[in-house]
């Protein structure tokens, strides 16, 4: 069905449905956007109003001019990107090997991966703190990067394993008969085919790292090394509420991720899977 | 076969790099921990974990403080500013790993003193500083005859009322008794627009604070001497009165599930007649300029003199080898009037020292709190059991609004007596 | 590239192995993954287990060995039953709703229509916005006094007085589930989109030639071929939702006790917020958590015949 419609004419009727769907997903964030454009107390007015009483654009200048916010943003981007690169580099060979070859220990390895997926860093934060202290990695980006890479690896291996498995083996067998090495086969034949899987794994890892909260909270000491998730906490506390700044900061933080996704999504459409088999 | 060997080599190399990296980090750790704390050597660097009172001021103050500290004493102060809602976790994790900071800023200290983790004032607090701290705070900072809980700042609660709503409801003066308070709440609640007469936060954030204010003003207490009196007749009467306000719908919706910040929000949006507040709330209200409010002493049940519920947070010093001198120098500097009072003023709280009280006297806005501060009543922070009882109160007190006040207080009394 | 043998990929979902390799070669390919798993996941887990066997003071100071006492205390906790029930309701409803809705939406989002790319971008937003933020945002949306949801419902006349979505016990769980589904949808939808796109074209063409209706084609061709994606989406969502912390914690923060807590927030509160305030108990609860999710996933994989999937 997908393929049939893929080759068929675009349908404008569906666009209406798509717009409604987009609206449903965006609605809360529109409220967030509007919340960033009104004063903090206006966010807690009764009865609430949908549109700001006074449009207050200065909040964005405040947030963007805030060194602390920029540092948090930098940390989140750095940690997110580095963990994603590590995860992809480590997961692809593992997923390929387990999906394509049999060897003693294959099933135990897959089980191990599945089991690690069940550990959440939140639960293990005490152990992580202790370990990173021994490694002298408390208060470093390295600790956050390693943690995010390790806890998202299982997902990446699994999803890539699923994608590798879904590709007919005949393609590779033929290539190997032609004398292509395993490494070349992975790079040239398989990777283009599993691009949607790679994209999913990339986005998932990046966003999971981007969202991680408890470990960063515990391991990071310097304010300037905190990621956004931890930094956000400073905007609304028991003692002061800066809802406008919180929402403005959130809006700014969502933008790079959506851009990243937009870039990758185009890739996904371009190199579509089975196309290369034809 | 050649190909497999090659790929094995590549992957093996990748593993080696990763492994070597981990080892490198490991050996680095050994060096670093060597100079930070071990042995009998004097510590040159100490670490402060400070609670974040406000986004703009707290960190700025401590950073500037660290600089002055370095200039004046030669010691280095590492500052970590932590949000209130996570500081419990941070401090607990550090202590589990034997990584306590040298100085920790928290709202409790007695359990830490009980565990033998803290320096007392003899070791680290200059004598002139100790004699400058208000006696009330010395008293509540003392555990088993030793002073451990050094206050960083304080706050005192008072009744905030919305003057416009009061005027609209035809209330001439703020209530002096609970009966008057109930009456005022009735009148405000009867106004059109669905206002709460009295905003009552009994949610888990800080219900012990709200309840303290009420029970002190009914002549009650948490503890009498060495014994807990949580379920005393007076306290049952107090909680029953709160239930009565709730049942009569004189409060906001669902007080048992309302946190303090939400009650403040309600007052700030002009939808509540009265609330128990403190100076940071006044600061917010002044900033918003939306609500015409007045601060008054909290009424007592029978009209006798109002009592204030006071709160201090603490800067406690952890025993770590060789850190006494640097820690003492820290307190010496922090309690300099131009340091501590600048901090307190910026954050909008109240002083903890005699010199501070004098300095703030000139501030008319603070007078209502300052007058009561030396006689403020605190929760029993000097009893380690309180650290547990407080949590039990936060989790259970609200239950009385839909249940039996006496049963709830009986339960709390049992918890308190069990946690020796 | 050779293309002679790929006319009808009959067994695409089961992924036949190309061949055998020697253990050492396989180890080399898996080594980086093993290093991360052992070094940063399992080693801290051992430390967690150690913590669960210790007796801790309220300050976090380790006072000595507790044996299995922490486990006994957790298992005898009066609220454990409530917490477990909540966890089951939370996980099952969030995952089931997420999977069903995502299947439909993914099917829609692979269709070709102008602006599709923008719709896909819109869908990523709940996922891109950090959970801490989304949870906080929904607290405000749900609010009894200032919330736009209540405001909107009142404006259109559906309700007369506000609903206390987060403070009223009969609404709290439903309100949390809604947010849980909302933030789980993007990921799941994209797993399914990727899965649908990975299905070779000719499979469908053959079905069309056979004259199958769209529903039959979906039911008999697409769905079976989506098995790997479904498996991944279900297992991961179960784990992910089970371990989800910010939503339950933030939306439930006004409610006393453990009335609406799941095992993860129960564990956190045991350590830092409750009257127990006991790291050892919390660690024991953490170990029990891990065992619990292991059990659930094992049962699930047994049901779907995991070994066959990966062979």
What labels describe this entry?
heterotrimer; B: 420 residues; alpha/beta; D-Maltodextrin-Binding Protein, domain 2; 2 domains; five-stranded mixed β-sheet; four-stranded mixed β-sheet; 13 strands; disordered N terminus; C: 311 residues; mainly alpha; MetI-like fold; 3 strands; transmembrane (chain A); transmembrane helix (chain A)
> What percentage of amino acids of chain C are in beta strands?
under 5%
Helix content of chain A: over 70%
CATH architecture call of chain C: Orthogonal Bundle
Number of strands of chain A: 1
How confident is the prediction overall: mean pLDDT of chain A? 83
Tell me the number of structural domains of chain A.
Answer: 1
The CATH homologous superfamily name of chain A equals MetI-like
Shape of chain C: flat
Name the structural class of chain A.
Answer: mainly alpha
Architecture overview:
The complex is a heterotrimer of chains A (278), B (420) and C (311). In chain A, 72% of the residues lie in helices and 1% in strands. With 278 residues, chain A is mainly α. Chain A has one domain (68-277): MetI-like (MetI-like fold), CATH 1.10.3720.10. In chain A, α4 (67-100) runs parallel beside α7 (141-165), α5 (106-117) packs across α7 (141-165) and α10 runs antiparallel to α13 (243-270). The radius of gyration of chain A is 23 Å and the shape is globular. In chain B, the strands form four sheets. A five-stranded mixed beta sheet of chain B has the order 2-1-3-13-6. In chain B, β4 (142-143) and β5 (146-147) form a beta hairpin. In chain B, α18 (384-396) runs antiparallel to α19 (405-418). Chain B is globular. Chain B folds into two domains: 45-155 and 311-375, 3-Layer(aba) Sandwich (D-Maltodextrin-Binding Protein, domain 2), CATH 3.40.190; 158-307 and 383-418, D-Maltodextrin-Binding Protein, domain 2. Mean pLDDT of chain B is 88; it is low at 1-39. By secondary structure, chain B is of the alpha/beta class. Chain B has 19 helices and 13 strands. In chain C, β2 (54-56) and β3 (62-65) form a beta hairpin. Chain C is mostly helical and 311 residues long. Chain C is 68% helix and 3% strand. In chain C, α3 packs parallel to α7 and α4 (116-128) packs across α7 (169-197). Chain C has one domain: MetI-like (MetI-like fold). At the A-C interface, α1, α2, α4, β1 and α5 of A face β1, α1, α3, α4 and α5 of C. β1 of chain A pairs parallel with β1 (19-20) of chain C, so a sheet runs across the interface.
């Amino acid at each position: 069905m997908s393929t049939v419609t893929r080759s068929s004419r675009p349908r404008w009727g569906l666009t209406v449905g798509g717009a409604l769907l987009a609206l449903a997903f965006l609605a809360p964030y529109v409220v967030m956007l509007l919340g960033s454009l009104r004063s903090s107390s206006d966010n807690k007015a009764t009865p609430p109003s949908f549109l700001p009483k006074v449009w207050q654009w200065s909040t964005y200048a405040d947030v963007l001019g805030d060194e602390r916010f920029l540092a948090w943003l930098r940390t989140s981007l750095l940690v997110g990107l580095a963990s994603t690169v590590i995860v992809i580099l480590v997961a692809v060979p593992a997923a390929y090997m387990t999906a394509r070859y049999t060897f003693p220990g294959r099933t135990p390895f897959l089980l191990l991966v599945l089991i690690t997926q069940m550990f959440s860093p939140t639960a293990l934060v005490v152990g992580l703190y202790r370990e990173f202290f021994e490694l002298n990695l408390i208060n470093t980006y390295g600790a956050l990067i390693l943690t995010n890479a390790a806890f998202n690896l299982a997902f990446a291996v699994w999803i890539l394993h699923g994608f590798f498995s879904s590709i007919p083996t005949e393609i590779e067998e033929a290539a190997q008969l032609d004398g292509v090495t395993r490494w070349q086969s992975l790079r040239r034949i398989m990777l283009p085919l599993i691009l949607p899987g790679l994209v999913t794994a990339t986005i998932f890892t990046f966003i999971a790292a981007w969202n991680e909260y408890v470990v960063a909270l515990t391991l990071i000491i310097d304010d300037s090394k905190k990621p956004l998730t931890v930094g956000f906490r400073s905007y609304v506390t028991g003692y002061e509420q800066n809802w406008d700044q919180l929402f403005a900061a959130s809006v700014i933080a969502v933008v790079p991720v959506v851009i990243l996704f937009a870039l990758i999504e185009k890739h996904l459409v371009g190199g579509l899977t089975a196309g290369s088999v034809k | 076969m050649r190909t497999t060997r090659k790929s094995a080599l590549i992957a093996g190399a990748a593993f080696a790099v990763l492994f070597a990296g981990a080892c490198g980090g490991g050996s680095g750790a050994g060096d670093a921990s060597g100079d930070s704390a071990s042995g009998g050597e004097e510590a040159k660097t100490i670490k402060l974990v400070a609670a974040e009172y406000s986004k703009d001021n707290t960190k700025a103050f401590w950073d500037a403080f660290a600089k002055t500290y370095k200039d004046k004493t030669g010691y280095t102060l590492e500052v970590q500013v932590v949000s209130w809602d996570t500081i419990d976790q941070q401090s607990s994790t550090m202590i589990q790993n034997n990584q306590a900071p040298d100085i920790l800023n928290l709202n409790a200290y007695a359990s830490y003193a009980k565990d033998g983790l803290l320096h007392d004032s003899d070791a680290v607090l200059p004598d002139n500083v100790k004699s400058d701290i208000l006696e009330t705070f010395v008293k509540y900072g003392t555990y088993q005859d030793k002073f451990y809980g050094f206050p960083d700042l304080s706050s005192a609660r008072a009744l905030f009322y919305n003057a416009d709503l009061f005027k609209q409801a035809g209330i001439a003066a703020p209530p002096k008794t609970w009966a008057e308070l109930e009456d005022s709440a009735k009148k405000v609640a009867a106004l059109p627009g669905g206002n709460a007469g009295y905003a009552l936060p009994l949610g888990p954030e800080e219900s012990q604070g709200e309840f303290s204010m009420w029970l002190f003003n009914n002549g009650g207490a948490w503890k009498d001497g060495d014994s807990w009196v949580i379920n005393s007749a007076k306290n049952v009467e107090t909680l029953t009165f709160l239930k009565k306000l709730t049942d009569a719908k004189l409060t906001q919706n669902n007080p048992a599930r309302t946190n303090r910040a939400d009650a403040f929000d309600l007052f700030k949006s002009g939808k509540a007649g009265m609330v128990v507040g403190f100076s940071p709330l006044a600061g917010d209200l002044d900033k918003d300029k939306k609500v015409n409010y007045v601060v008054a002493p909290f009424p007592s049940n029978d009209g006798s003199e109002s009592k204030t519920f006071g709160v201090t947070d603490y800067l406690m010093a952890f025993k770590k080898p060789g850190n006494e001198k640097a820690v003492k120098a820290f307190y010496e500097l922090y309690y300099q009037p131009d340091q501590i009072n600048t901090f307190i003023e910026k954050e909008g709280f109240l002083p903890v020292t005699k010199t501070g009280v004098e300095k703030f006297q000139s501030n008319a806005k603070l007078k209502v709190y300052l007058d009561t501060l030396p006689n403020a009543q605190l929760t029993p922070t000097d009893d380690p059991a309180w650290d547990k009882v407080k949590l039990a109160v936060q989790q259970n007190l609200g239950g009385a609004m839909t249940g039996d006040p006496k049963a709830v207080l009986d339960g709390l009394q049992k918890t308190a007596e069990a946690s020796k | 590239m050779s293309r002679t043998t790929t006319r009808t990929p009959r067994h695409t979902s089961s992924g036949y192995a190309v061949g055998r390799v020697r253990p050492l070669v396989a180890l080399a390919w898996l080594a980086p993954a093993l290093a991360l798993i052992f070094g940063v996941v399992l080693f801290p887990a051992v430390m967690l287990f150690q913590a669960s066997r210790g007796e801790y003071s309220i300050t976090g100071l380790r006072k000595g060995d507790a044996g299995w006492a922490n486990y006994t205390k957790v298992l005898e906790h009066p609220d454990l039953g409530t917490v477990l029930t909540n966890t089951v309701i939370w996980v099952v409803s969030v995952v089931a709703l997420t999977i069903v809705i995502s299947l439909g939406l993914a099917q829609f989002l692979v269709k070709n229509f102008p602006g599709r790319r923008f719709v896909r971008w819109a869908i990523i937003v709940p996922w891109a916005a950090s959970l801490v933020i989304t949870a906080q945002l929904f607290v405000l949306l749900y609010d009894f006094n200032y919330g736009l949801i209540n405001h909107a419902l009142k404006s259109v006349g559906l309700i007369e007085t506000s609903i206390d979505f987060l403070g009223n016990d009969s609404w709290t769980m439903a309100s949390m589930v809604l947010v849980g589904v909302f933030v789980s949808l993007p990921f799941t939808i994209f797993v399914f989109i990727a899965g649908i796109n990975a299905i070779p074209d000719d499979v469908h063409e053959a079905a069309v030639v056979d004259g199958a209706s769209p529903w039959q084609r979906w039911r008999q061709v697409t769905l079976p071929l989506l098995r790997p994606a479904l498996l991944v989406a279900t297992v991961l969502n179960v784990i992910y939702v089970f371990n989800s912390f910010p939503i339950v914690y933030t939306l439930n923060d006004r409610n006393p006790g453990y009335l609406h807590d799941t095992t993860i927030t129960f564990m956190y509160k045991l350590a830092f917020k409750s009257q127990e305030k006991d790291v050892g108990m919390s660690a024991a609860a953490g170990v029990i958590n891990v065992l619990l999710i292991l059990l659930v996933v094992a049962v699930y994989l047994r049901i779907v015949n995991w070994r066959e999937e990966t062979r």
